[in-house]
Amino acid sequence: MTIQTIKTTPFDDQKPGTSGLRKSVKHFKKPDYLQTFVQAIFNTLEHVQDSTLVLGGDGRYFNREAIQIILRMAAATGFGRVIVGQGGILSTPAASNVIRQYQAIGGIILSASHNAGGPEGDFGIKFNGANGGPAPESMTEAMFAAAKQIHEYHIAPLQPIPVDKLGKYQLAGMQVEVIDAVSDYLALMERIFDFDKISALLASNHFKMRFDAMHAVTGPYAHRILEQRLGAPEGTVIHGEPLADFGGGHPDPNQAHATELMNLLYARNSDIDFGAASDGDGDRNMILGKRFFVTPSDSLAVLAANARLIPGYKDGIAGIARSMPTSQAPDRVAEKLGLPCFETPTGWKFFGNLLDAGKITLCGEESFGTGSDHVREKDGLWAVLFWLNLLAEKQDSVENIVRQHWAEYGRNYYSRHDYEAIEMQDANALVDALQAQLPGLAGKPFGDLTVSAADNFTYTDPVDGSVSQNQGIRILFADGSRIIFRLSGTGTQGATLRVYLEKYEADVSKHDQDVQEALADLLAIVQQVARIEHFTGRAAADVIT
Ligand code: VG1
Ligand code: CO
């Protein structure tokens, strides 16, 4: 079989962001663009000959074409076997599991996660290593550097693999194994959670739930696990059919984008006790009680505090990690349990070393990401099953469980304000101006609040000593309140400014405030120090979560 070598010109814009390389579909469809990045991944890997690669995506527009191209390039590179999810589909956490289970060299995941899809939407690609987790920065930097040097790529001649049919196929001497995307993942969940107890809860007349798959990858997983295996009534899963354009919506499980689910749970006469949603590639989760929203930061704290109730964590957890902008609610749990707590930069890749070294068991991000050492990605359905197992154990409502948690640990009022698609140069000017103020902020009073420290977050990985700088501007106040500014590393249009606000309230009689009102003082300080409207022309955030 003759392998073709195609001459091409290098690309200098293939720098992966927070989670892989994300660009518009139009950008990805430029001649040789996808192929160059795939070749850059393959050139960066060592010992690919005869190794196993995992391949799957979230099913968005361009997924199918990309799968066939990558299979042909993998065959040309000399991989022994590629394991593909049926239909070219694998959720991100399921892919992480398959990599680990089949001892693959790693996997390629095709997803732009919560970004909109379709011909006018976004596409993305990322590489996860043998531990199942996102490639560390050293590796993504190497891929970026490789892409700038690539003048040719290698590809086997066209032989489309019928990825919709389970089975084993041959492609230019390489084996392609199409596997059921759900079954290995379901088996893993059965090893962690008490499925009998969850089934009993779902069968009871006093409990109703809805899971919103947002027309994204978790539809088949949720139908199989929640409805077929656990016996939740048909109709429990809404928007369960994966669509290449996610039905035109943003597959982002938050209060702003999961509107139908929010309406169901917040209706005055709602009879639904538990609501949950996940994103494009199935790694995010939103948790709702009846007319009650659980912030992702609180969710991590509650799961950590109650982990021993879950079979998979019955012997306790080793430690907790959270991304820097995530609220400090989990820290309080770690302190009480006498566990180590780590603060990492934004992005799941920073949890990998801590998980591999056994320093932590649970970790999470404010951006609706929660996970554990069962895989090396955040895991949306895992979080939903954790909550269901907890509800089954406690026989109490989501709201009561969270309120009791606040009563015990205090409440961290929390919100994120996103200013999307602003001009890159405006965003940079705003950040530069903030950076310039940092040295003078410590000790400065703003009303009742006094700045205790202000910096740009630097992280030193406690396992391998690698240093990551400029991970977000932090203004820390003496009472534990925080304001954080970061530019998104997943957006594809201009820049997205994220402003994170956090205020701690120990007094249980003050746990009923409106979140934005509780944070109003901090928002006023944001306007004063960052002058967002001055720099960007925006008077208010586009998305508030
Ligand atoms: C965002 C979130 C971050 C998350 C990342 C990938 O990154 O803030 O916490 O890890 O998305 O999640 P950024 O750089 O735009 O703030 V996913 O579900 O999009 O893979
Ligand atoms: Co995602």
From TrEMBL:
Q: What is this protein called?
A: phosphoglucomutase (alpha-D-glucose-1,6-bisphosphate-dependent)
One Pfam entry for this protein is: PGM_PMM_III
In terms of domain of life, where is this protein from? Bacteria
> Sorted alphabetically, which CDD domains does this protein's record hold?
PGM1 (cd03085)
Q: Name one GO molecular function term.
A: metal ion binding
Q: What is its EC number?
A: 5.4.2.2
Catalyzed chemical reaction(s): alpha-D-glucose 1-phosphate = alpha-D-glucose 6-phosphate
Q: Name one GO cellular component term.
A: cytosol
Q: Give the UniProt keywords, A-Z.
A: Carbohydrate metabolism, Glucose metabolism, Isomerase, Magnesium, Metal-binding, Phosphoprotein
